[in-house]
Amino acid sequence: MADPQQAAMAAALNDHDRLRRSTEMPLFFGRKDRDSISARLLIDRITTAAQIANWNEARQLQEFYMILRDRALLWWNSLDDTDVDKANWNAVKADFLASYEAKYTAKTTCTNFHELVQRSGEGCHDYYLRVHEAFTKMCESKPAAIAAVRAAAGAAADAVKAEGIRDIERFFKHQLFLAGLKDDLRVKVMEAGKDTLHESMRLATELEIIHQEKMKRGQVNSVTVVSAAAAADEGSTQIENFDDLEEDEIAAVNAIRMRNGRAPFKNFRSKFNGARPKVVCRHCKKPGHMQKDCFARKKANAPMVDANGKPYEKKVNAVDARGDTTSSDDRTHNVGAIVSASLNSLNW
User: Fold this and answer.
1) What is the pTM of this model?
2) Alpha-carbon distance values, 124 to 138, 185, 229 (Å)
3) Among residues 100, 112, 177, which one has the least CA distance to residue 138?
4) pLDDT tens-digit readout, 177-219
């Protein structure tokens, strides 16, 4: 039979350890390059810890003081020169937030919204957290009068008005999230027509994981890669089938080009403000590119033709500075061998 005294001691030690872990605070230096937490979140954590451990105001101020370092400690000492009462938690907290919490004005809010685009290499969940943070900061500055009920009075009307405000905020945040998703993800998520931000975020994350698994298995558009290698051999900076590539595939192809000392590819549509030029290839009869850029023509080693379908006369290439007398047609014919050699020499 277990000793009741030992069991009680073990329980007390467990409670003490749990309390210690729940009230541990990160250090605050007052420097962006060293702080792991924002001033606002630090205050929230101290407030929660005080509730868990039943700290009085004096203990709360002591715990707060003990985590200050570097410039933040200098700030604490500077309070002696102000009217701030260092024994008053609310006064200290207000001055601390005024000194270290980022100020969100209309201008910074617009800047934050402008930057709400999913970055290269950024996961959907991390992007969602940035949207949430920017929107929360904007809502903190909304006037109290926005919650006032004008059509009717009473507790029920106040509750209805508050619920309506929350619904609008959730809808707006949902649209912000969708607008900044990567193009391929945004189209698929919007087609799914999810009702809530949480549902859209989960779907985007699932689609992102599926795409990453495909990339790991090497399921890259081989036709586009061959086209890219052919363009690289000719010194081009465009891919005819660029729209068929995912962003990660574009990055992979550009990494190979840059490793070989070549400029990265450019989106064919970017020069035309998002629309393809109204041209039709004389070889494959498909719109959107010219015959000199036609990969099908190059693969078939077919000559370029004039408006009447008559092949242009071949011109003999002059010997280049290295003494290379290989014609452009011969170089195009050898694209397959160049692609194979390039891919075998790289850790693709």
Assistant:
1) 0.44
2) 21, 9, 31
3) 112
4) 998 898 888 889 998 988 889 999 999 998 888 888 777 765 5
